[in-house]
Amino acid sequence: MEKRLKPMDAEQLREYGHKMVDFIADYYKTIENFPVLSQVEPGYLRNLLPDSAPNQPDSFQHVLDDIQAKILPGVTHWQSPNYFAYYPSNSSVAGFLGEMLSAGLNIVGFSWITSPAATELEMIVLDWLAKMLKLPEDFLSAGQGGGVIQGTASEAVLVVLLAARDKALRRVGKGALEKLVVYASDQTHSALQKACQIAGIHPENCRLLKANSSTNYALSPELLSETISQDLAIGLIPFFLCATVGTTSSTAVDPLLALGKFAKSNEMWFHVDAAYAGSACICPEFRHYIDGVEEADSFNMNAHKWFLTNFDCSALWVKDRSALVQALSTNPEFLKNKASQANMVVDYKDWQIPLGRRFRSLKLWMVLRLYGLENLQCYIRSHIKLAKHFEDLVAQDTRFEVVTPRIFSLVCFRLLPPPNDEYHGNKLNHELLDAVNSTGNVFVSHTVLSGKYILRFAVGAPLTEEKHVNAAWKVLQDKATALLGESLR
Ligand SMILES: *Cc1c(COP(=O)(O)O)cnc(C)c1O
């Protein structure tokens, strides 16, 4: 008796697909019943699952039961309205539908011919998004530049660093790799450091310049200028400057205009990382935070953070796409085709590290079409308003302080340390974080600024409302009261 597997049966897809959508919809309805931060111990899953894969098929219902009983306890619920850690990673119905369609078509769009719609839709939606952000025209696909969807901001900074490195080496000679220098503030995301390691930049030539509270942790153009002068004096070659709009610790905004001028006068590539805060710049009242982006060679914003597009979708724009292509293109025989050979098309394989690529533009297109600019602006404003509200709550409690001025939807705050005792202040805040997160009612994360241990409260989950912010603050206050009571004893 021969049994043949039918892995893509349309009727089975319909039946199970509907069940899976129901399962996910129920998940969202009951999401607040789970501890927002998973409370399992490391290795918990080994004890719950068999040692090897099944010989014979399992039933779909059985798998769903296991997801409920064994997988969900080990999930941290990023979409919970009580999630305030790191930065948000939005999902939405529109984003979900786009992701679903992308999985359904399951194309691999590395060059234009492998699915013309994938390449062309990506160019179009990134032009749309560039216009929403009022990016300079040089970033649009009509000229020498254009946008591309990377998986993450980390890949975005890596590909532009490689493009910049090779562009610089073409200018100064291949032997000069050891002399190339990268500049950024010490608040820059660690993705830059990783990119430098991969790109073969000499470890001592990755200058992470100190940013402190006097500039609210923004990079100082004077310090940059001094450092560049010193490096030039000893024969080094500045080639890459990374500025951040909305740093990961505290949403600091580097002064793009001033920094960009230095980059230009030193023939450096200027990259702007606005992974989180870029989303806010679709609102006219926040657009000024990227004033000076005109000076940039590349600009990055994560649509998968605070822009309702399910992970992963990181939008990168460059002014000179040939720099990317020169660094990253290959042209093996088995990929040759008429359109590519005639240079009539964009082949996104030459703008990224991997060959294969998903049809990610579908979900961004869905988000832009099903919500529209005005709704998206309101969405951003509502979170900023909630963060402002939280900031007010913190400011009213004399046991706490707001540590850096709130700019977007992140509040950096802490319990005030005992007089002249930063050490115990740090310990106290660490304990407060653990106490709060172990309740399962809220998830907050931390950072360290100028040696101070600080709590980060990032509003931005799609389901978060004022009542959730108030409840989270109540948990923080109650745990603070308990901790301070203990330390008095
Ligand atoms: C989140 C973040 C990153 C890293 O994002 P990935 O997409 O996970 O690589 C980089 N830079 C900034 C400013 C960020 O906020």
TrEMBL record:
Pfam families, sorted: Pyridoxal_deC
Example of a GO MF term: pyridoxal phosphate binding
Cellular component terms per the entry's GO annotation: cytoplasm
Superkingdom: Eukaryota
Family to which the UniProt record says this protein belongs: Belongs to the group II decarboxylase family.
Gene3D superfamilies attached to this UniProt entry: Aspartate Aminotransferase, domain 1, dopa decarboxylase, N-terminal domain, Type I PLP-dependent aspartate aminotransferase-like (Major domain)
Needed cofactors: pyridoxal 5'-phosphate
UniProt name for this protein: Tyrosine decarboxylase 1 isoform X5
PROSITE patterns: DDC_GAD_HDC_YDC (PS00392)
Modified residues (N6-(pyridoxal phosphate)lysine): 305
Signal peptide stretch: none
GO biological process per UniProt: amino acid metabolic process; carboxylic acid metabolic process
UniProt keywords, alphabetically: Decarboxylase, Lyase, Pyridoxal phosphate
